[in-house]
Design goal:
By secondary structure, the chain is mainly beta. It has helices spanning 12-22, 107-110, 156-164; strands spanning 4-8, 35-38, 44-45, 51-53, 59-61, 64-70, 86-93, 116-117, 133-139, 142-148, 174-176, 185-187, 191-198, 201-212. The chain has one domain (4-212): Fumarylacetoacetase-like, C-terminal domain (Fumarylacetoacetate hydrolase, domain 2). The chain has a five-stranded mixed beta sheet with strand order 2-1-11-6-7, with no helix packed on it. A five-stranded mixed beta sheet has the order 4-14-13-9-10, with no helix packed on it. The chain is globular.
């Protein structure tokens, strides 16, 4: 794994919630390209590893999402060719400290240690052809939110084409497709699980527990 790139405002419900603000100063219009952020390597964790609740933070957002794993260098690719650049998919949890501002990149809120657990790559790119990925987010084994890639603003091929227009993607880079509106909250001691399937085939389950930060 090299770079993990996240996408904001890529589900229709969260786009709709913020669209009126996109036409106000200083934006004046909706973004023409995907709105991106980075999940640096300090955030990466494996299934079963703890998610650390920072001191002073009571709850975090459980941003279950799909990760697209890039299979070869992708630069200025066409939407119709996008699947040829995909190695496979994984399950990710884009953990975030709740925040309201959309004027600045949410680096502090999204880039804390342990804030991006990910599964291994479990499906080939062929699974997505004509299929929809279904995402379920659970807190303490209770289903809290369901979403699907049918509700994306930019489909997977469109997303890769638009990103690669100005950013070269390399083999083993991961693109997180985004999170829907209303993702659930979790607190210390909670068990959080993300489950994804496509065309009846499961990617598995990504489970982690929330622990408090240890003061030194």
């Amino acid at each position: 794994m090299k770079t993990v790139i996240g996408v904001l405002l890529n589900f229709k419900d969260i786009w709709d919630r913020y669209e009126s603000r996109m036409h106000q100063e200083p934006h004046n219009h909706p973004p023409r390209f995907p709105v991106l952020f980075i999940k640096p390597c300090n955030t990466w964790r494996n299934p079963g590893d703890p998610i650390i609740l920072p001191n002073g933070v009571d709850e975090i957002e459980v941003g279950g999402t799909l990760g697209i794993v890039i299979g070869k260098t992708a630069s200025h690719i066409q939407e119709v060719d996008a699947y040829a650049y995909i190695k496979g998919y994984l399950i990710a949890n884009d953990v975030t400290i709740p925040h309201e501002s959309i004027l600045r990149p949410p680096i502090k809120q999204k880039c804390q240690d342990s804030f991006c657990p990910m599964s291994t790559v479990t499906l080939s790119p062929d699974v997505e052809y004509g299929g929809v990925f279904n995402i379920g987010i659970f807190v303490n084994d209770e289903l809290k939110l369901k979403a699907s890639t049918a509700s994306l603003v930019r489909s997977i091929p469109k997303l890769l084409a638009d990103i690669s227009e100005y950013m070269t993607l390399k083999e083993d880079d991961v693109v997180l497709i985004g999170t829907p509106d209303g993702v659930p909250m979790a607190k210390k001691g909670d068990k959080v699980t993300v489950e994804i399937d496509c065309l009846g085939t499961s990617l598995g389950r990504l489970t982690n527990f929330i622990e408090s930060e240890v003061s030194i």
